[in-house]
Amino acid sequence: MSDVDAVPSPRTHQEAASIARFANDVQYYLKLQPRQLPSRYLYDALGSALFDAICLLPWYQITRAEMQLLAAHGRSILAHIPHLTTIVELGPGSGQKLATLVRAHRQRSLRLDLHLVDVSPSALALSSRTLSAAGDVRIVTHEASYEVGLAEVAREAHAGRTLVVLLGSNIGNFDLPGAHAFMRGIRSALASGDGLLIGADLVKSERELLLAYDDPLGVTAAFNRNLLLRIDRELGGDFDVTAFAHQAVWNETESRVEMHLVSLRRQRVRVAAAELDIVMEEGESIWTESSYKYQPADLVVMLEGAGFKLAEQWIDSQAAFALTLVEAV
Ligand SMILES: C[S@@+](CC[C@H](N)C(=O)[O-])C[C@H]1O[C@@H](n2cnc3c(N)ncnc32)[C@H](O)[C@@H]1O
User: Fold this and answer.
1) I want to staple 293 with a disulfide (CB 3.0 to 4.6 A). Which of 89, 127, 191, 203 is the partner?
2) What is the pLDDT of residues 50-70, one digit of tens each?
3) Ligand 1 center–CA 115 separation, angstroms
4) Domains in the chain, please, with CATH?
5) Handedness of CA 20, 183, 193, 89 (dihedral sign)
6) Measured from the CB, is residue 120 less than 6 Å from ligand 1?
7) Rounded to 5 degrees, what angle do the CA atoms 177, 179, 182 make?
């Protein structure tokens, strides 16, 4: 069997285009120094399921803290945006958090349009099921990056106000210039009076941060190493997942937790569809994710700089997590 035969054939035009993008990115990012892979590729069907398992771990406090804030303040959040007709969630995952907001909206007479934007088809399927059971909603899914999905939504006319939600500290996967640009991009997709709700993890002790990203059960390690399995399966790679160790590092200077996959020996790796053939040294790593941690005031400064004004900020001080609601000016 040739290398090319080892790559499964895509079934649809959209699937072929996304495999080609994945192959291009793998070729580009694995040749950088340090070697990297964009974190959005962590979420194939198995990666999305492993992320949902991470949310249940006692060491990963983000999900519980944010769910509690949404349950406690859902009505206040909605009260800030009269005539709300549309909610756009960027990266909904399981959809459970948005379901909490939709349930808080139930007493109102207006039906909600929900736009779910996610790169993971399995996350879109699960969140659609969760949300259709939560209330009177019309669901539109966008299997796309945040930016592309948001542009698709912005092209449609919306009768009332729109709320964009970005939860689970998804903002933390952007470096700071990227996060600023992303906030400006969201602002330009909105009209004045529309809202943006952001959940962001805050700086806390190194011990808590490392337990959240390197848990004693090894679920986060499986989530990280699954990226190599995905490359093997979708792009005809020959990564040996047992030859890479998961590593989480707190980079205090940059205020981010980094996830890496560290090569346990000198090894050659080929990825057929990416026409890539590299040698990795023992100890050399592939940087797979950054999770930037914020101070509450820095979030507000960033959002104000992007053309929003603060409506309210709720903080879970035990878990060190902030939910910030801003209005487009
Ligand atoms: C960390 S999970 C959070 C899920 C959910 N918001 C929560 O709080 O539980 C990130 C979600 O965003 C999606 N995602 C990650 N990067 C993305 C990107 N660049 N564009 C669109 N979706 C992305 C993933 O597939 C996943 O469903």
Assistant:
1) 203
2) 999 999 999 999 999 999 999
3) 14
4) 4-58+216-292 (no CATH), 62-204+295-328 (3.40.50.150)
5) positive
6) yes
7) 110
